[in-house]
Structure formats: structure tokens, C-alpha cells
Design brief:
seven-stranded mixed β-sheet; alpha/beta; seven-stranded parallel β-sheet; Rossmann fold; Aspartate Aminotransferase, domain 2; homodimer; 24 helices; Aspartate Aminotransferase, domain 1
Chain lengths: 716, 716
């Protein structure tokens, strides 16, 4: 069953990092523990090397007798944990490590007033498995205290350690450090947005351990440690106050949201991998982000590699105006995109999101159409061919690509400019793979999903052809002039997660490229020219959403568009960047002697270096992923449940349509199911009675299995 | 006169940073210098403390006799440079420091085959002025070599130092470090995307300096240093190859660009502050970014604070779906925006760029209009009132807000949906402040610019009122129904940098809020309700573009809109984020019992944490800026030149319209002037014969003065 982790936040819990090894981390940790000795402090040392000669926990216990102390993983060799673990053949897997620490912290929180977890070495020192400490500990979502470096050079190591913690998403309320002649704290305080508290240099170690302890206790007593207690208590109080206050979401106007119907505001304290850390009634609850944050998550939340990719481009360029300039991230990303789509396209046009990418695509398509048809056509009334239920964004031009629907019904300037086919869909229903919603035709059953996608498949081809041609003929006879075919290939997303029969889309593309068969009013063009161009909107389905080997889904359909668009997963799920790719013919149609002939479209941050750098890093990571999948046999079983009308699973996408009288975007049939998923740690959004769970491309198959089991148990 | 810095790139030049103090940086630097001893190496030590007892340069000279060596700033005290400088009362200003180093490197490059610059301490150690070293040295644009830390804890310090360098925009081709039992290099090599070269541990220091030198020379001879030469030579060759290759900008489709007319591709190697580092024929040329990268730059290129703000949100959240969720950066930015606009607005709607912010604004305005007018109106043909030459973005909805112009003339789906006023403008012409382009009225002259902006001004008010009312009456009688007034307040940007008479815009806003005076076909609404709502498009002019105290420019006009939009400078100039702010009435108009009543608009990355975090940091920095300005008397002199038709200067914007027969967006009259500016180190873009230079909000006034002098000298 899917595991959910809830942790109390009323017990302040801090991870203590050192700016370097040998900065007095344990002495400082003891100071923290000592400071809180009236609060029943708990001290956890997850990894201790050099044990039992060295034991930070024992030292702390000797100073703060009342503290609860614990050392979790002990190694004899006094070296880095990753080396000791290899030497002593006791390597601990990251998941086990995290599980064990969580468990211990949980036990501590039941009794303690404050919990300190002391790391080993510096921020980026490897832990047992070799994973960097800062990286592994971010999975807990605790705040950090950094022990600064007071030595010569300590300004640099402290600020760099601080920056490494920031890049890994830590809040760092406090830098604690020792005073020294170098006065390192002065510049550290100026550069880091963090409170710095100074301790005097501790006394040197006395050979007699009893005297040493006495010396240390007296040292701690001299340090006015109430400063620390006061500061951290205030911090913690404000931290909870801020989380509480955020619940009101004051001043925020949410997209696609009827504010009067909002029942719960999710206060997201942080997010790591597939999980949100959500604040709720004094607790932090981990929730699987089952909508992949509006289908954007490819590489998970709080991905340090992407954070670094963003930071490095920001530091090297900031933004660079786009026209007539080139910078390395833009150059390399452009080459990579052309290569990933097998050099079918020749140009990449950058913009900011799916809507703008599609507006650009349409401008490209219509211009190409005009150039292809070397004569005056009534271009101001050009229409597009689409599929019912398509969605391409919320700017007016993008809206006009869709048939009338709930999204555009109240928009004054919406005027759907096209003709849309009601298309056949495939699904898994009652254990059977079927293609259904075929106009005037019974559903057709297939043995396997791969049969439906087979490029050799021809069963319904003739039927589809006739259907398409007759409708197009009628429309052109009625006076419509089509400038482009616009498709979301394979899956229609926002329109209800409709998985279109690939044969239908393939046939549609083929037919519109044979204009003479259906467009009697437009002259046939000889040679390679076709009348209208084909746009794919891969904003949702592209960039590996539908499969480990599918940067573009064109291979699934076996046909290529003239223009395609990507966004969402392009940046791994971090920030906005969109691209529209075109064939050379499309690009050439804008060449000429005047600026007027050019594509006069652009946005301020076109091809911003940060976005390009993050996308480049993402594509690098995607390439090396081994892939994941929704378990086919579990899916099959799911589809047999009475409460389920259909299941679709492809790539990281799982769709479950519930059996219900009412359906559509405004339906709330799935309410209870969604609520139950939430209670079990899975956050999902629905499209009416269509519930979807979207994993990221890095979600482990075993987690996906757990979710399938959860769904089965909730709907059985 | 404006200074331009050009540096050769054919001589490889590296800044050597240490992961910490005491990592053997000088021994490693000597290895690098020794390795290249056949190439006439040059070694520069910008700052040496502990001199003359310590001298890294002297040590290197003793090892590599043939090297040219130089120590620039020497201090006696063996402490951090910032402390030594205070102690010895010899503080060096950052600009002077940079100037001196540049000069020395320049001299070295004339003779040397390779130049090494050794820093002091660690990456983030303060330099003489207290500025962090990594921060100051990025102003040179050289690549970095990092000397890794081989000691216990050195994995962490090395990786953190590496990350700090990345955040400051350095390319780091090489980490050089000593081998040790800890095998630090193994994890460092795995985590950092950089070549690691290992050296054996050096021999311990011999008391007899002559023997010590012999020992060291023999040590270096054993290290097979050709590995380093080979690697760095390859790197350098590839680096130049890559820059050369980028010139083709293969596959890039530039926005707003006729590719056939492109004469020069600017290869931007990096950018710092106001400057691009542009690669051109084997040289790196520094160019002032005089178009503020399409008007986005508020806080300069490569701003480390913004890089950190981006990195920390990326590390803490990645992206978080927007509806019904809140996260700290979104929460805090929302409060800050409402506060900066004096709580006139109640809600913030997030989107990605100016176009989308304006599409949202129009949807808001029309819905408000419908709610205000509680009866059936022909809402599908709602029109807007605007000003000729306005520009609001390139999506179809945003385009339809503008009158027909060169941008939209070839766009099939463009159908301008409004009525536009030809508005009076102010300018400085032949030394006089005038308001001109007043329909059927002579230009009016004013003593000072502040007279034109005076809120008490009433001279042309009656005239403007009549003009506006009569035109509106006529239009409504002709059957137009207006849903909104859409203005770029104060300045029309892309339409030609037209500075509209503020009195005209103020009067226009006032008139449209008195519907009964001019709209006989629409019923007057009693009480506080007005018929149409007013949108300000502050995407260009907002966020301090027009003045140090002007997050919004509404105070300049003395009237407030119902809805306003910001983007561009909102993120300091780093990445896309846009907001549309509305009054509570506007927000309330979307409330209801169904989702259908809501504003069903959104983009995947709505209110992405990275953007919100960067914007928040930017607003914090803007608040503390002391401001800058274009020198009023220099401006006045400029306006008297024969070649100049008009000058406008406001905030960071300077506009110079050249005297020319032809004008407009497609004109190329300014070509020579632009070329001359470029040759003198200032990159600008034009709007026809309108040349503008846009500083960032952090550009120093003295730099702006230099540019005014340059312009005067070029156009005299």
C-alpha cells in the first residue's frame, strides 16, 4: 500500500551542518543542546565514524545529561562514512537510511521539545551510500543550522556551504560560529541573509576527561545560550505563524479556479522528488504530486541539478536579448532539439509557454499556406481543422483553435475558427482493449495495445478516410478555407484525457496532405507542395511524457508534422520555456527583403539563458533514464472494476474514468475518490469524472505499483 | 568618453581559485605555470598579503625562471586582504582594482602564451574592498581553474566552492588537486561536470630554500604535466571553435527578425552588469547593453543575488501547481505587489509574459463590464478604446488591442478590435519642452518637464475633453460597444517610444468613467459603478523603469486603473514572470456558484516559485537603490543638435529621434548612428529612426553621462 509520511512541526527539528569538517560542529551542537536543556532536547547522530573512540553523542550526553541521545549507524574507521561503509562492508541504501532517521526523529518528537540532527563532515560530504549529505537530508524537509568556519579562509567555506544548502532548498535560520581574530562573522553576516550568533572560542581539551567536561560545562554556562533559545523559539513561532497565515492565500487569484468552491488551500512548505510537503493543522504531510503540477514534472521537485543549471546560467548571463544574438545554452539546446527530432525540422522558435508556442505555430502555418498557394486567398478568414475536445491554451488565438467548450464559453473574444472531428478513441474497458466512439460503427476490440498502435494496421483506414474526406468536402463546399490541421497527437489532454485512435490521426494527416481529394475549391499543387500544413501540439505529450524513448510522439503515429510545439516537461518541470519547431519550408516562407515578411512575434524573455540551460540539463538527464511504467497486469485488473468505465495508461500517464451518469469538466462525480486518495497521500486533480495520475519520468515503478494497488483498494 | 574594453581570447587566461585556503593553491599554480614553461607563461598575483615574507610570485619565479611574474597589490599583514587593507590604510576601490588587473593582463597577453591569475584564499574570500573574490573576478569574464581540497572534508569544500563559482557564471574547465588517501577526487569527479587532474602530494618543505626549490622542480618534472598542457590546449581550442561555430546560429529562428537582413550575429559569451562580453574575430568585446535586453534589465546581467534567488526556489520547490495552492515566494510576492501599489488592488493573477498578462487583463475587463451592465449586451463584439501606436504583445488577443500596424499587418487572424486616439505627445525639441501632435492645435511650450506632468495642470484639459467626447459619441452612435480602455501609461513603447501628454491620458481615463456624457446608447449607471473599466499596460514602464520611486507609474498620471499588468523588470531582468493586478470589484465579477463563472485561464508554470523568488529579491533590491538619471543639461544640449528631431528622457529611458524624411518601424535611417555606437561599445536597437538607450536601474549616472557625451560627439 502507498505509504504516507506525516510529521509534527510543533517540535522544532533542525539538521546541523558544518561549513567544513573541523569547525567545531560537535561543540556547537552541544551548545545548542545545552541551550535547550530545559526543553527535553533530543540529539540524533545518524552516522558516527571512528566509533567507539569518537562519539559525538556521548560527548553531548556528558555535557547535557538530560538530553535524549542516539547514534544510528556506527563505523570504526575514522574516515568519511562512504569509505568506512565500504571498508566494513556495511553499506546502507539511501531509502533505508532515510527511513531509519525518520523513524528515530518521529520517536524523539513524541517526547522532546526540540530535536537536533548532527551531520558528519561538511554540507557536501558524502554519506554512507556516497550520496552527498545535503542532498540526502533534504528529503526530510527540516530546516538547517550551519556551523560557520572561524578559521582563516572560513569566510569562503562558510558562504559556499551556505550557498550549497540554499541550492538544495534548505531554510537556514541560523549560522552559529566561534569568534576569532579573523572576524569572519562580519562578512558572513553581510553576505548571507541569516542570523549569525557567535560563541567564544572553547577552552582547549583537557587530558583528564572529567575536568574537560567541567571546563566545557562552565564554558557553556558563560555563553549566554538563552540568546539561541530565544532566537530559535521566535523563529519557530514565526515559521508556524507564516504557514498558518499562508492558508488565507491573501491576494492570490488562482488560475482556472472558482474561488467560491475552494474547500482547502494546500500550503506547500517545500517539495522534493514526487512529493509535496504540505502544512496542515500543525503537521507536515507528504503528498504524492499526482497531477505532476499541471503535467510539468519530468524530473521531480527540488531537483538540485536543475537548480544548479538555473543558477549557473543566471550567474553567467542573466537574460540576453534574443534577436540576432546567440549564447551557449540557446545554441546547444537548439542543436539538441533538432537532433532529438531526427533533423526533420530545421528551426526552433522560442517562446514562454504552450499558448504562445501554439500562437506562433498558427502564424507559421498560415504564412506557409499563403506561400504554398501562390494566389490571393481570403486569408483573413482562414480556418483550422481539429479534433473535438482539443485544447491549446488560453490566449485568444490558442482558444480559437478549439471547438466551443466550457473553457471558452464566457470569453467575449472567443470565436472558434475551425472545423472539428469527433474522433474515435482507444481504451481499456472491462479487461478489453477497444477502439470506440467510431461514428456509425461498433467498437472494435484488439488483443494488445501494440496492435492498436501498429503502423501496419489498416482495419479502419478506409472507413476513416471516407469519413474524413466527406466531412472536409462538405465544409469546403460550404466555403471554409483551411490553413492548417492542428492536432494534439495521441492524447487530448485538458479536453478529458482522450486517447485518440492513432490510426484516425494518422489517416487525417495523410488525407489533408492530398488536397485534390477533398478540397475542390483550392487548386491542387504539383510536386512536393501540399496545400495545408500540419501542426502538432506536443506540449502535454512531448518530452518523454508518453514514453522513455519519445521526446516527440511522432514515431507513435508514424507521421511527421510541419510544425510542432513543446513546453511543460521541456524544462524538467522547473520553469516556463516553450519551443515551436518548423521544417525548412515553413521557415523559408518568412524570408524576404523586408522586415514585414518576417515572423514579427517575440516575447521579452525569448530563449532566456536560464530556461535554455535548465532544458539542456533536463534533456541530458532524460536521455539516461531507464524508464518506468504502469504495471500492465494491474491496469488490466483495474479496468474490470465496476466503478471504472475505462482505463488508459501510456508512459507516465494513468487515466481512470469513473462510471457515472454525469460527465464533463464541470462534473464532480470523482469527489469522494479524490478525497480518499488525498487521505492516503496522493494529491490528484480531475477533469470531471476523469481522474488521472501522472508520475514524473523519474518516479520509481514500485511507487507506481503502490498507487495502482491503492486505487484498486479504494474502488473495489 | 565611453570606455570600451576589448580583450584577446587567443591567449588563454585563467583565474585560479582555491576550494579553501591551505589547499596548495600556489604549489598547484606553479605546476600550471611550470607545465606551460615552453609557452612563455605569465603569472599574475593581484593581491599578496604577508609580503615580502610570503610571495607566491617569487616562489613561482624560483620554479619557473622563464615565467613573467607580477604581484599587483602587496600588504604586510598575513591576513585576509580586506583586513590587511584596513590595517595598512590602503583600501583599493573595486573599479580601480579591476582596471589595474585588466591592464596587467592586457600587457601580459601581448607577449605570453598563457596567463594565470592567482586569487587569494577561497572562492568567496573577500578581496581588498571586502567584495567577495568570485564576485569581483567575474567582471573579467575569464574562465576558472579550481584547486581542489585533498584533505578530510575536502569533498564538501571543493563541491561547494565549485557551486559558488557556477553561481557566479564561471566556466570551470579544470579541477586540479593533490592525491590523498581520502580519494576525494573520485566523488568530486562524479558530482562536478569538470575534468579532474591529480598531482602527487608535494614533498614537504625543506629548510634550505635552495634544496627546497630543487626538490620542487624535480617533483614537477615527475608529474607528467604535459597532461595539463594537452587538456587545456584542447579545451581552449574547442572553446574558440564553439564560439566560432555559434556565429552561424544554426537552427535558431529569431523573433522579430528578417533573417535575410541580418548582418551580424552577436555571440554573447557572458554578460555582467550592463555589459555583454561579445566574441568577435578572436576577441572578446565588452558592449553596453543599450536596449536593456528588450527592456528587461533592471538589475543587470549575471546578478549573483538573482542567481541565488532562482537557485534556492528551484532547490526548495521546483514548480508547484498553482490552483488552490500557496507557497512562500508566491505569498510574499503577492503581498509585496499589493503593498507597492498602495492596496489599490486586491488580487494578483500570475502568468508568464506581457502578452498573457494583457490577455488576462482584457478577459477581466470584459467580465467586469458585463457584470456592471446588468443586461444583455452584444458582448461578442466588445471593443476597446486605445491610443494609436500602442503595443500589448504578440498573441492574437493582445494584437487585437492595437490599431493596424506593421507588426500585425501579415497576421491572418488579426482584427483590431477597438477605436484608437491619435494622442498628443511631449518632447524636448531644439531646447524646448513642448507638447505637440495636438489635433488641430499648435504645439504648446512649457518651461520645465515637471510643468507638463503637474497634476494641477489644466491648460488643455477642456480641449482634450471635447475632443475625446466627440469622438466617443460618434463611435457609439456608429454602433461600437466599448468594454475597456487600454493604455500604456506615460510611454508607448514598441509603437515608437512616444511619450504621451499625461494630461491627455488622465483626461481620457476621467471621461470614460463618466459614461453618460458620451455614451448615449448605454444606460447611465447610478452610484459608484462605471460602465467600462480601465486597463494599464505597465509591462514596459512599470517596476522602476521610469523612476526610482515608481513601481507603478499611476502616480505620474494621477489616476488609477481597475487593472494593471507588470512583467519585464519584475524579475530584475532574469526570466519570464508576469502579473495582472485587479481591484476587488473586478475579482468579484468572477465569483459564482459554478466553475463556469470563474476566470478559466492559466498556464502550466503560473506563479512558478523560481520566478516569484527572483521577483521578490528584485523588489527588495530596487527598494534600496539610490536612483540614477540622464543628466538634464546634457539632454537639453543634445536636443539642440540639428540631426536630432526630439529627445525624451525619463527614468532609465533615453530616446533620440533622428531628423529624417522617412520614419516608422521599417525605416533604417538610424543605421550609421547605430553602427557608430556599436563601434564605440554601445549596443542599441532602434524603432525606425527612433534610437533609444535604456540603462538598467543600477547603471551608474557617470556611465549614463559618458553615453550622452558619446551621442553628442557622434551627432554633432
Amino acid at each position: 500500500m502507498f505509504r504516507i509520511h506525516i510529521r509534527a512541526i510543533h517540535v522544532p527539528t533542525y539538521v546541523i551542518f558544518g561549513a567544513n569538517t573541523d569547525v567545531g560542529k560537535t561543540i556547537a551542537s552541544a551548545a545548542l543542546t545545552f541551550a535547550f536543556k530545559a526543553n527535553n532536547p533530543s540529539f540524533i547522530k545518524p552516522v558516527q565514524t571512528g566509533y567507539p573512540v569518537d562519539s559525538d553523542a556521548r560527548f553531548i550526553k556528558s555535557i547535557v545529561g538530560s538530553a535524549s541521545i542516539k547514534t544510528l549507524f556506527k563505523y570504526t574507521d575514522p574516515v568519511s562514512p562512504h569509505l568506512a561503509a565500504i571498508q566494513e562492508s556495511r553499506i546502507v541504501d539511501d531509502d533505508d537510511f532515510v527511513g531509519k532517521v525518520k523513524e528515530e526523529v518521529g520517536l524523539s518528537q513524541d517526547q522532546a521539545g526540540v530535536v537536533f540532527i548532527e551531520t558528519a563532515g561538511g554540507v557536501n560530504s558524502p554519506t554512507i551510500s556516497g550520496t552527498l549529505q545535503g542532498e540526502l537530508y533534504k528529503r526530510f524537509g527540516y530546516d538547517a543550522i550551519l556551523i560557520g568556519d572561524s578559521k582563516l579562509g572560513g569566510i569562503s567555506t562558510t558562504i559556499s556551504a551556505y550557498e550549497s544548502l540554499l541550492l538544495r532548498g534548505y531554510k537556514i535560520p541560523l549560522i552559529l560560529m566561534f569568534d576569532s581574530n579573523y572576524k569572519n562573522h562580519e562578512i558572513i553576516e553581510k553576505e548571507c541573509k541569516t542570523k549569525v550568533i557567535l560563541l567564544e572560542q572553547p577552552p582547549s581539551k583537557h587530558q583528564d576527561s572529567e575536568i574537560d567536561i567541567k571546563n566545557m560545562v562552565s564554558y557553556y554556562q558563560r555563553q549566554n545560550l538563552d540568546r539561541i533559545v530565544e532566537f530559535l523559539n521566535d523563529y519557530h513561532k514565526n515559521r508556524i505563524h507564516d504557514l498558518e497565515e499562508m492558508k488565507s492565500a491573501k491576494g492570490v487569484w488562482w488560475p482556472f479556479t472558482q474561488h467560491d468552491l475552494v474547500k482547502r488551500v494546500m500550503v506547500v512548505d517545500s517539495a522534493v522528488g514526487d512529493k509535496f510537503f504540505v502544512y496542515e493543522n500543525g503537521k507536515i504531510k507528504q503528498l504524492f504530486d499526482g497531477c505532476a503540477s499541471w503535467w510539468t514534472q519530468g524530473l521531480g521537485h527540488g531537483n538540485t541539478k536543475l537548480a544548479l543549471a538555473a543558477g549557473k546560467a543566471a550567474g553567467r548571463y542573466g537574460h540576453v536579448i534574443s534577436p540576432e544574438t546567440i549564447h551557449e545554452p540557446k545554441h546547444l539546446l537548439t542543436q539538441k532539439l533538432l537532433e532529438l527530432t531526427n533533423n526533420h525540422f530545421s528551426r526552433v522558435f522560442y517562446s514562454d509557454n504552450g499558448s504562445t508556442a501554439m500562437e506562433v505555430a498558427v502564424k507559421m502555418a498560415f504564412n506557409t499556406f499563403i506561400k504554398r498557394n501562390q494566389e490571393k486567398l481570403p486569408t483573413d478568414s482562414l480556418k483550422i481543422i481539429g479534433i473535438q475536445g482539443g485544447y491549446h491554451g488560453d490566449t485568444i488565438g490558442a482558444m480559437d483553435l478549439s471547438d466551443p467548450n466550457v473553457f471558452n464559453s464566457r470569453v467575449s473574444w472567443y470565436t472558434g475558427k475551425g472545423m472539428w472531428f469527433d474522433a474515435p478513441v482507444w481504451e481499456l474497458s472491462q479487461g478489453k482493449h477497444i477502439v470506440t466512439n467510431i461514428p456509425n460503427h461498433e467498437p472494435v476490440q484488439y488483443d494488445r495495445l501494440s496492435d492498436i498502435f501498429a503502423e501496419s494496421r489498416s482495419d479502419l483506414k478506409g472507413y476513416y478516410r471516407e469519413l474524413i474526406i466527406s466531412r472536409l468536402k462538405q465544409a469546403t463546399e460550404d466555403g471554409m478555407v483551411f490553413g492548417s490541421l492542428v492536432l494534439e497527437p495521441v492524447v487530448l489532454g485538458a479536453g478529458g484525457m482522450l486517447f485518440i485512435d492513432p490510426l484516425f490521426q494518422r489517416t487525417l494527416v495523410e488525407v489533408v496532405r492530398e488536397p485534390q481529394t477533398w478540397n475542390p475549391k483550392s487548386p491542387p499543387i504539383p510536386g512536393k507542395l501540399y496545400l495545408i500544413s500540419v501542426i502538432f501540439d506536443e506540449i502535454f505529450v512531448g518530452m518523454y511524457r508518453l514514453g522513455n524513448n519519445l521526446p516527440s510522439v511522432s514515431p507513435l503515429l508514424g507521421v511527421q508534422p510541419d510544425i510542432t510545439s513543446f513546453a511543460k516537461c521541456l524544462t524538467g518541470g522547473l520553469l516556463p520555456l516553450a519551443v515551436t519547431l518548423s521544417t525548412d519550408e515553413v521557415f523559408q516562407s518568412f524570408r524576404g527583403n523586408t522586415k514585414m515578411d518576417a515572423l514579427l512575434h517575440g516575447h521579452s524573455y525569448t530563449a532566456h539563458p536560464v530556461g535554455c540551460s535548465v532544458a539542456l540539463e533536463s534533456l541530458e538527464i532524460y536521455k539516461n533514464l531507464k524508464g518506468n511504467e504502469w504495471n500492465p497486469s494491474k491496469i488490466l485488473q483495474l479496468s474490470k472494476l465496476n466503478k471504472i468505465k475505462r482505463v488508459n495508461a501510456l508512459g507516465t500517464v494513468l487515466v481512470v474514468e469513473l462510471t457515472s451518469a454525469e460527465s464533463g469538466y464541470l462534473s464532480n462525480a470523482a469527489g469522494d475518490f479524490v478525497k480518499n486518495l488525498y487521505e492516503n497521500g496522493v494529491f490528484v486533480r480531475t477533469l470531471g469524472n476523469v481522474v488521472y495520475i501522472m508520475a514524473s519520468q523519474t518516479t520509481e515503478t514500485k511507487v507506481m505499483d503502490e498507487m495502482l494497488d491503492l486505487i484498486a483498494s479504494l474502488l473495489k
